[in-house]
Amino acid sequence: MGKGTKRKGRIDSWSSKQDELLAEKVIKHVAEGSTQTKAFEEVGNILNRTTAACGYRWNNNLRKIYKEEFIKAKQAKVAATRSTKKPVEYYNLQGLIEFLQDVQENMYRLRTENDNLQSEIKDLNDEIQTYKEIFQKVQQFSAKVDKVS
Fold first, then answer.
1. pTM above 0.85, yes or no
2. Which has more confidence, 62 or 73?
C-alpha cells in the first residue's frame, strides 16, 4: 500500500447484523434438535456465503460470545428429547430399526459436536502457544533491559 492510502475493511467482512443472524440461527437449530451444520447451511444461503465460512465464523468468533445461550439451547434440546422419546419397542423389527436410526443420528450429531470441540481445543492451544512465545520474548527483552540498567 502506498503512502496516503487507507485500507478499508474486507469486502467479505461480517457485519454485526450478519453475526446476530448466524448466532440466532445456530441457537435456534440446536434448541430444536437440529444441527449447527444445518444452521450454517441456512445462513450461508441467506447471506450468500459458504457453509464453511459460516462454521468458521461461529466457531472462531461467535461461539465464545454466545456461550451461555448456546449451552441453554443444548439443554433445551436434551430436555425436549427426553420428554418426547417413547420407550423403545425392541420386540418388533420396526421398533428396532427406529432405535438404530436414532442411535445413528445421535452418533452423527455427537461426532459433529466432537469435531467442533476438537477444533476449538486446537485453536485455544494455538492461542496458548502464541501467548507463551510472546511471554518468552518479553522475558528475554526484560533480561536485556536489566543487563543494561
1. no
2. 62
